[in-house]
Description:
The complex is a heterodimer of chains A (102) and B (455). Chain A has helices at residues 3-6, 29-37, 43-50, 93-96; strands at residues 9-14, 19-25, 58-62, 67-73. Chain A has 102 residues and is an alpha+beta fold. Chain A has one domain. In chain A, strands 1-2-4-3 form a 4-stranded antiparallel β-sheet. The relative contact order of chain A is 0.29. Chain B has 13 helices and 19 strands. With 455 residues, chain B is of the alpha+beta class. The mean pLDDT of chain B is 96. In chain B, strands 12-13-9-8-1-2-3-7-4-19 form a 10-stranded mixed β-sheet, sandwiched between helices.
Amino acid sequence: MKLKEIAKIIRSKNAGPFYCTFDIIFKDYSDLDMVLKQNLITPESISKIYNLPTSKIKIFEYKPAFAIKITIPRPVPSGDIEDTDIYGAQQHAPLLDISVQK
Amino acid sequence: MEIKALATAMIGYGLPKDSLERGIEKNPDFIGSDMGSTDSGPYFLGSGDIKDTTLLKKDLELVITAGLKKGIPVLMGSAGTAGTDVQLQKVIDIIKEIGREKSLHFKLAAIHSEIDKNYLKEKLKEGKITPLVEEKVGSYNPSLSSSDIDDTEHIVAQLGPEPFIKALKEGAQVVVAGRSCDTSIFAALPMMEGFDRGLNMHMAKVIECASLCARPSSRDAIMGYLREDSVLFESQNPDLKCTAESIAEHSLYERENPYYQVEPGGTLDMTESSYEQYNERIAKVAGSKWIPSPTYMVKLEGARKGGYRSLTMAGVRDPIMISQIDNIVEIVLNTVKSILDDYVYGKDYSIRFRIYGKNGVMNKLEIKKEITSHEIFILVDVVGKTPQISKSACTIAKQKLLHCHYKGILATAGNLAYPFSPDTIHTGITYNFNIYHLLELKDPYEVFPIEIINV
């Protein structure tokens, strides 16, 4: 099963012009807990997807909203000449297909 | 004791009227509206342009007339998107125009937030400026020099709630500020009334996006009811609900860290915040704290000119062409180079091929390597040091791409489907963020002069 079949929200967005933040939100605590226990969202796994050193990846468990937040530096600042996504709103797609064991 | 804070969505995009009116009927203590953000990139900070003055005027008229009719203050921040002086002045002019047309008389306070370059160079020497991002990334360099400051088109600082309070104390009925921390607009009046700073900041952080925190989310107005021990959130669209979950979720939105939010003068601490359902449509938050900081820091934003942009864009449906796209891009790049090298222009341009259907959105981070679409869209993005270099490079690229011969070609009459004419577009100056630093202030008013205008 894939993350997109369990999570109710998977999104990305700028957190200011230099960071991109990803929110993976579940419908309840048990789904969050199931994903957390499988250790799927780690600095190591995110570093492979977004081609970054693990030291630059911040991951937060946010229980009030049954969520996992990932914050990474953008490859270039928003609106820089090499940027392809000013709002950072379409960088989440690779997270959708992370495999989860039900 | 309770403060009712009525927040609209961002001004300048056409505000939903019904929810604003519904909120007004509940006798709020003030109306707050955000007008800007860095979200849409560095262009508006660099250029000082306003997105759409017609929509802006319509929205301003709506909130100002509503506030004056009720006799409550109207507070607005980040004038004209980036809050530069030129944008603030445009907003002041529009407000005066509204006053004339509607025969309204009121005291307007305009708070400036554009920073004088010589002042900033002095602060740099004194060591009062520190980078928010410590590594060089793209065209941003954290080690700021005096000449970098000179090269910047506009530099603004995000003001805290204090200048808003000062403007209110001077009797302003309408306050329009340059670049503002989103929270300052909504936290000012409750702070003036002595409310707890933690809950106040949490309320401000939620309502600055209007009913985006409701389910379903929308741009309708929202009311924050700030009490001594809690804050309630109610969308002013009766079809929307604020739930414990939706408000907690909002702590994640567009933020690096869901537990802490650094603001001028301190940090909002949400580690012990509680979220509960108050009634069917209203959610309640308690337990948020404010940690004051020993120094008063504000965020600086600056944008510098990059070059001049020209674009050409078209679709491709031919599967043989699609299979050869990487080779074709190389041929086109070489052609542009070989033609321009012969001219005096030199090499002062760069070209990016954005291939939608391949990796146009994620570029080097794209994990799918094969094109599986039956059609692709090619955007050729040219930025040159002068408008002429950019135009010439784009014109050559367009023509070569249209008629490029590739391996296995059957369609020899043209490679591109252009959806419009002209086929090349010149969008003018590009900008990039070159200042994203913190500035330490002596007091919260130091760089934010207030101008009082009788409209």
